[in-house]
Amino acid sequence: MKNIVRSLEDIVNLAPILKAAFPYDLSVAVCDTEKFLVYYPGDSIDLGISAGQIIHADEPLYHALKNDEYSRANVPKEYYGYEFVGTVLPVHGEDERVCGAVCIQVRRQTELREIADRMTLSLNQANARIVQVADGSNQLADFSQKLLAQSETTAASVQKSDDVLAVLRKVADQTHLLGINAAIEAAHAGEKGRGFDIVAREIRKFSQETEQSAQRIRDTLREIQTAMKGIGQSIGQIASVGQEQAASTEEMSSFIQEIRAMSEQLNQFAQKL
């Protein structure tokens, strides 16, 4: 369809009105077939075009005018420091020949996409770290449970040692009684029982040493029992903390997944701008 105008002057006069009517920040240029007539830059997009600037043959605008074609192109960031969409709409005189064009440039929201991309990257990295922490917390909880079971087994084994000590003390008591009886018999035997009396004293001495050793072992085992009880409580607390930490990291990971999904939606929205 031909876009016929009486003169380019009408388009020139309409350009600032057209720019003000759009709800987006954009720049507008009007040209004839050889040069730019006017250029109205936007707040965030300014291509530095000036009135009278010649249109070069290597510009997309030149080809759009020559071929009488509507043109829409994405101009990459490398040219002006930011990305924008440029459109060229050829206009025709009353003889239906191309007499110029209206050019509009709208800056694309690449910054928004870059922010969304950085958010996604950071969230992916954070989620990976949280997964590692969660795995470590689960392993810590499992290891703590094993340690707790082992400490309970050890405590039970120490408890059984009391039975051994009871037997040892009984032996010491019997030995002591035997030494007393032997001393009595030696006294009855008089001079002939003197050697037997020496044996009786040694038996009583051995009984006392056995009782003392049993007492020291009993004290040591009680200390071990107290220590094992404290270790068991500490391990139980570690296991509880590990489980709570694992649950918290799983909740954080779920929350990050939601934020990442929102950042991806933000990126998709930015792609349309």
UniProtKB/TrEMBL annotation:
<keyword id="KW-0807">Transducer</keyword>
<protein>
    <submittedName>
        <fullName>Methyl-accepting chemotaxis protein</fullName>
    </submittedName>
</protein>
<dbReference type="Pfam" id="PF00015">
    <property type="entry name" value="MCPsignal"/>
</dbReference>
<dbReference type="InterPro" id="IPR004089">
    <property type="entry name" value="MCPsignal_dom"/>
</dbReference>
<feature type="domain" description="Methyl-accepting transducer">
    <location>
        <begin position="111"/>
        <end position="273"/>
    </location>
</feature>
